[in-house]
UniProtKB/TrEMBL annotation:
InterPro entries: Phos_transporter. GO terms for cellular component: membrane. GO terms for molecular function: phosphate transmembrane transporter activity. Its main location: membrane. It comes from Halogeometricum rufum. Potential transporter for phosphate. Pfam families: PHO4. This is Phosphate transporter. PANTHER family: PHOSPHATE TRANSPORTER. It is found in: Membrane. Coiled coil: none annotated. The keyword Membrane applies.
Length: 392
């Protein structure tokens, strides 16, 4: 017979997943909704489908890592301790929301479980060290990849992706038959269709990457306790994320209040592509990744790369004039013809370093990204160590 405590644990896990759906749908599909490419209900449906696909495929790797490998004795995951861990995850994320910072659910979940493991003396330091190393390396990789794209490829990419919206809607809906059939509106051009497809596809990739990493944050403690099997846990989490996408995500879709969706469309696509690809890669390794931190450093790298496009290497380093030898001079072909200067394609629209990222905001985000998991870790450790009912 199913215990009341197990039902409570499932409900708490679904509440965490519900908030994940609400907070991640906006960054994933905000650009598509803002460009009138898809409606909010369609965005919510796509979020639910692709999140579930990510959770069902690669997400179980991260669930296993958090639920059974981060601690050397899974017996520490009792129902009571699992519910408490989920509680600390929720409280810590609430602190981030109060300060207007999209906190990393992955880092917060790892912190809460690590606090439990420390209190019980069963934390696997090797696994924890592996996770922390990837947390350091992945934002650096995202920064440099985005910087290279911003410096050398952004202008041409912008020429391919940038959308000039026509006056009419993208599609007309033919309701003459039993099933409504969407048809391309007469004013819609091929470039507009290509841009629409691109931005929606990127949103689907972000939703998939969210599923690969974030499902573990909601269900790993219960799966680790052995009280809930992997497959039903993923189903419960996927349902809760979808409900969150259809309800509380409407606000994030309206305001697009995240660092990613406030970027120009092309920049948003670059940041989302780089960040999502890294998250999917880490999830395949079983590493719970922080999409927000990777995306933040990707924004910084992209902004820095674009801002330094017309500059020589010495000017980038010293901040003032340098030698006339530029990267373009090294790009001359064998016949002596040179390519256009790096910044020629968009020299009149080169942003300042602060145009694509605000240093103060970036510092606040990075600081809170460390404070929130620390709260979860410290709260979990102190509770499990000194509250008698847990018996550690």
């Amino acid at each position: 017979m199913i215990s009341v405590l197990l039902v409570a644990g499932v409900l708490v896990a679904m509440f965490v997943a519900y908030n994940i759906g609400g907070s991640t749908t906006g960054p994933a599909f905000g650009p598509a909704v803002g460009a009138d490419a898809i409606s909010k209900p369609v965005a919510a449906a796509l979020m639910g489908v692709f999140f579930f696909l990510g959770a069902w495929t690669l997400g179980r790797n991260v669930v296993t890592k958090l639920g059974s490998e981060l601690v050397v004795d899974t017996g520490i995951f009792t129902l009571e301790s699992s519910i408490a861990v989920l509680f600390f995850i929720g409280v810590a994320l609430l602190v981030g929301n109060v300060y207007g910072v999209p906190a990393s659910t992955s880092m917060t979940a790892v912190g809460a479980i690590a606090g439990l493991g420390l209190a019980g003396g069963v934390l696997d330091l090797a696994v924890m060290g592996e996770i922390v190393v990837w947390w350091v390396v992945s934002p650096i990789v995202g920064f440099w990849v985005s910087l290279i794209i911003g410096r050398y490829f952004y202008a041409r990419l912008n020429g391919l992706v940038a959308m000039d919206r026509s006056t009419g809607p993208l599609f007309d809906v033919d309701r003459s038959g039993l099933v409504p059939v969407p048809r391309v509106h007469r004013t819609t051009n091929r470039r507009e269709l290509a841009g629409t497809f691109t931005v929606v596809a990127i949103g689907c990739l972000m939703a998939f990457s969210s599923g690969t990493s974030n499902i573990a944050n909601a269900v790993a403690p219960l799966v680790g306790s052995g009280e809930l099997a992997m497959n039903p846990a993923i189903v419960f989490g996927g349902v809760a994320v979808t409900v969150g996408a259809f309800t509380i995500a409407r606000r994030t879709l309206e305001t697009m209040g995240s660092d990613i969706t406030e970027l120009p469309l092309t920049a948003a696509i670059v940041v989302a592509s780089v960040s999502s690809t890294l998250v999917v890669f880490l999830s395949a390794l079983g590493i719970p990744a922080s999409f927000v931190i990777i995306a933040t450093m990707s924004i910084v790298g992209l902004g820095w790369g674009r801002a330094t496009r017309p500059m020589t290497a010495p000017e980038v380093v010293t901040g003032d004039g340098g030698s006339p030898v530029t990267v373009d001079a090294l790009a001359a072909d064998e016949e002596g013809e040179t390519l256009p200067p790096i910044g020629a394609e968009d020299a009149e629209d080169i942003p300042s370093p602060g145009a694509l990222f605000n240093p103060v905001t970036t510092a606040r985000v990075v600081m809170m990204q460390n404070v929130v998991p620390a709260i979860a870790t410290a709260g979990a450790y102190l509770t499990f160590r000194f509250v008698p009912i847990f018996g550690f």
